[in-house]
């Protein structure tokens, strides 16, 4: 029987365990926004549905049915609970995190550092800017995080207080996106929220900073089983 080196099997299992849905677009520079408004943290508090995100052409799987609950904490921070699905056969996957405000003297829009309990300890906090919101119906969130000395990872999301934006709000959001996100690679993917696709979620009932989540637990199990298999076959 043909055998494979121990390190090769272990690396293959580790590669399969990596979460491929937290992608983004590579860019040499981050976008700048001229919006200037007084952010009201208490009005942003509550449940939001992700209805669009910048499309990552390298993504092989997509997060859908994304629901987030923001709970206002101390000094303008937010506790975050989130659920999502990967495919219509998936059960909701849960994660929790925290958004800490970052303050710059010349900042015109609210900026946060966000981190989930599924984030690799070696990875940096995600930079989050809330570039537009009316608090009651929509929000546009932008992220651009440095990954090395020359490149950044760029992502953006459209959030809604309901699983779908109202028609008049869609027009408003489209005007904003078309005037700001103008690069050829700025293409948007609609996040699925149909009742026949999405399973019921209990995101509002989850305790803060729950375990690392279903996906992380399964990923670690895959790595351990892969290493055990490698030892047995080597």
The averaged pLDDT comes out at: 81
**Share of helical residues:** 10-25%
What sort of overall outline do the alpha carbons produce when their principal axes are compared?
globular
* CATH class group: Mainly Beta
Supply the CATH architecture: Beta Barrel
Structural class, from helix and strand content?
Answer: alpha+beta
Describe this structure as you would to a colleague.
There is one protein chain. The protein has 234 residues and is α+β, with helices and mostly antiparallel strands. The protein has one domain (22-202): Lipocalin, CATH 2.40.128.20. It has 4 helices and 10 strands, in the order H-E-H-E-E-E-E-E-E-E-E-H-E-H. The chain has helices at 6-17, 41-44, 167-180, 214-233; strands at 25-27, 46-54, 64-72, 78-85, 93-101, 111-116, 126-133, 138-146, 152-160, 188-190. The protein has an 8-stranded antiparallel barrel. A hairpin with a 4-residue loop joins strand 7 (126-133) and strand 8. The radius of gyration is 19 Å and the shape is globular. It starts with 5 loop residues before the first helix and ends with a helix. The model is unreliable at 1-21 and 208-224 (pLDDT under 50). One of its GO terms (cellular component) is cytoplasm.
